[in-house]
Amino acid sequence: MATQALVENETNDNAESDAESQNxxxxxxxxxxxxxxxxxxxxxxRGWEHVTRIPxxxxxxxxxxxxRGAIVPIIDLRIRCxxxxxxxxxxxxxxxxxxENNVNDSERIMGVVVDTISDVVNANLNDxxxxxxxxxxxEIEYIEGLATAGDNMLMLVNVDKLLNIDEISVISxx
Length: 174
Hints:
By secondary structure, the protein is an alpha+beta fold. It has a single domain (23-172), classed as CATH 2.40.50.180. Helix content is 20%, strand content 43%. The protein has helices at residues 2-20, 77-80, 159-163, 166-172; strands at 22-30, 33-38, 42-47, 61-67, 70-76, 93-101, 106-114, 116-124, 143-149, 152-157. β1 (22-30) and β2 form a beta hairpin. It is globular and about 45 Å long.
């Protein structure tokens, strides 16, 4: 009996350890490439809807959306990542994310426009690879790592770096 209890405790400890070493990521597509964001950052997933345009904002800032009384900036990730723009359709989705503001250690809510949502996947933290080094013409600062999702390579987006920029800060604080 004591041996069985010891084995059960070790099994439970291993299961907890495995769960602690995994993160869940919401995956989405941009230009036929699959990306992922930490599921704990996702507040809501919405279909594309009209937003209020902000004059003199960068082209990747589509506008703002009133989300239950909160003004939420909406960023087109295709344009933000220098990808070919695409017309929005019934598959276009806005992912509402929580973003940490490094300036004053606060949280902001922002929306990103993506081509389509794919899935929620588990990634073992030990299996996440560092982003390879490229020459300076390729911007990889917004990718925190690479993970495997089935047969595909999944780029994990660092939303704090991607969305924590001065132009967006000004808009989201208005």
